[in-house]
Amino acid sequence: MLLRNLGKNLFIIVLVSLLVQFSCTTIKLEQKLDLKVKEWYELHSAIMLSKVPKSIDRKQPEEWRYFLNLTPRLQKLYIGMFWIMRDPDAKKEFTLRVSVANYWFRGEGCTGWQTDMGWLMLRVGQPDYEDWKYLDNYGRLIPNINQTQEEWDYAKTRYFRIWKYWIGKGLTTMAEFTFQYQINSKWKLLAMFNDFNQRKLLEVRQQETAPTDEGWQAWAIHVTKVYKPEE
Predict the structure, then answer these.
(1) Cα-Cα-Cα-Cα dihedral of 91, 125, 34, 188, to 10°?
(2) Does residue 231 lie within any of the structural domains?
(3) Residue 55 to residue 153: CA distance in whole angstroms
(4) CB atoms within 10 A of CB 113
(5) Domain span including residue 122
(6) Which residue in 27, 35, 123 sits closest to 75, CA to CA?
(7) Are residue 190 and residue 95 in the same domain, yes or no?
(8) Residues ≥6 apart with Cβ < 8 Å to 68
(9) Using one digit for the tens of pLDDT, what is the confidence trace for 93-136?
(10) Are residues 96 and 74 part of one domain?
(11) How many Cα neighbours within 13 Å face the side chain of 225?
């Protein structure tokens, strides 16, 4: 029985690995996507950052990279399995993040989730706290902004919003992300996961929306049942 199970697992590993096609650059892979698949990918890749299990792909790439290297036929199968592979609460959480981002950040000339703030919200959710800061030309905090138009216009170029997140359940460590107001009325994220706390937060939050072990097994079984080589 053990040898039989090992044989089945080995068959699944080999089969799924053979279905993955690698290309030299991610950009080229994205350009090859069907238009509808590309639109889906651009949104959902926000939560496709966890590693693929070795039982599915020996190289253990990130989920988004694994998806890009699938054949077009398998990509469509994967999209159909995407939420089935995840905890039911993951879909509710992601749908909420998209709705909030599209509502609150809709004034920057694009869909809310495509802004820097929307980009971050899709990945790690809404902040636990938010601070606002105004700095003068010397980097000093301005307690009150004078209401003359000239001074206000200048102050906006030194205008910051800091999003703060608790990491884990202990509520002892926070990750911070700083956005600066731009002249074109957009908020620019100044740093993206470049310190330990930011990366730890991303790791924790990604696990909440990542495929489950059972989900990966379901995907492998689904492929073996429905996949037939294209003629």
Answers:
(1) 170
(2) no
(3) 56
(4) 21
(5) 88-207
(6) 35
(7) yes
(8) 23, 26, 29, 30, 33, 41
(9) 999 999 999 999 987 888 999 999 999 999 999 999 998 887 76
(10) no
(11) 7
